[in-house]
Amino acid sequence: QVQLVESGGGSVQAGGSLRLSCVASGNSYSRRCMGWFRQAPGKQRQGVASIDSNGRTKYDDSAKGRFTISKDNAQNTLYLQMNSLKPEDTAMYYCAADRRVCWWLSRDAFGFWGQGTQVTVSS
């Protein structure tokens, strides 16, 4: 069992930055792959980025070049640094984890989820 708690969301002007955090607890074997997803109102949940046990990362095209996923293993914390934010980045952001190696940045590939943290980007 894995528990994930996100924080760091809020409201920001377009072009600004936010850093999301996700504190993980539970069996580390069950979170070999960790990622960030987002879901805007009326839209499907979308993968943003993932990172595996070796630090290898994967990004959705919408996030590539602007967002950076990282982790601090000692603190059991996952981060998502978001720069150059756009109004279309507005969404609920979810931290996710899975026992399997990272491969697909898709909802079905992750078995554990946090409660979400809201990010709102205004023009």
TL;DR of this structure?
By secondary structure, the chain is mostly beta strands. The chain has strands spanning 2-7, 10-13, 18-26, 33-39, 46-51, 57-59, 67-72, 77-82, 91-98, 112-113, 117-122.
Task: Give the arrangement of secondary structure elements.
Elements (H helix, E strand, L loop, with lengths): L1 E6 L2 E4 L4 E9 L6 E7 L6 E6 L5 E3 L7 E6 L4 E6 L8 E8 L13 E2 L3 E6 L1
Parallel strand pairs: 2-11
Antiparallel strand pairs: 1-3, 3-8, 4-5, 4-9, 5-6, 7-8, 9-10, 9-11
Task: Give a verbal description of the structure.
- The chain is mainly beta.
- Helix content is 0%, strand content 51%.
- It has no helices and 11 strands.
- Strands 2, 4, 5, 6, 9, 10 and 11 form a 7-stranded mixed beta sheet that branches.
- It is globular, with a radius of gyration of 13 Å.
- The mean pLDDT is 95.
Percent helix among the residues? under 10%
Strand content: over 45%
Low-confidence stretches: none
- How would you characterize the largest beta sheet? 7 strands, mixed
Any key phrases for this structure?
single chain, 123 residues, mainly beta, seven-stranded mixed sheet, four-stranded antiparallel sheet, 11 strands, globular
